[in-house]
Amino acid sequence: MLWTGETPEAKAVEENMVTYFNTLQGLLLLSHGSMVGAGPTLSSAIHASIKQVVDCSFKLMMETVSSYGNISFCFTQTIALNAPVL
User: What is the distance between the alpha carbons of residues 50 and 45, in angstroms, rounded to a whole number?
Assistant: First the structure.
């Protein structure tokens, strides 16, 4: 999403959040695969880096949703769209 100075439509924000969290899920899977066979130092460095990315992502999502109103509704929808199938 490119910032143009205009307030984006809620639907556009939702679509961008879905895309962002799908990408984040891919990063989590990739990082998990990268930790296989890694030593303890590399594993903890990967874990710490990914934890920072995830924490910042959720803060970004919370701020984005709070600027559009009902946080519980949007959060539930975003999590439902991105929940991995077990």
Answer: 9
Give the pTM.
0.61
Instruction: Report helix, strand or coil for 15.
Output: helix
Domain of residue 70: give its range: 40-86
In a domain, 47, yes or no: yes
Query: For residue range 51-72, what is the model confidence (pLDDT) as tens digits?
Result: 898 888 888 888 877 776 654 5
Q: Which residue ranges of the chain lie beneath pLDDT 70?
A: 1-5, 7-8, 68-86
Domain count across the chain = 1
For residue 15, being part of any structural domain is answered with no
User: In the structure encoding, which two tokens stand for residue 31, read together?
Assistant: 């990082």
Q: Alpha-carbon distance 59 to 53, whole Å?
A: 10
Give the integer Cα–Cα distance in Å for 37 and 71. 40
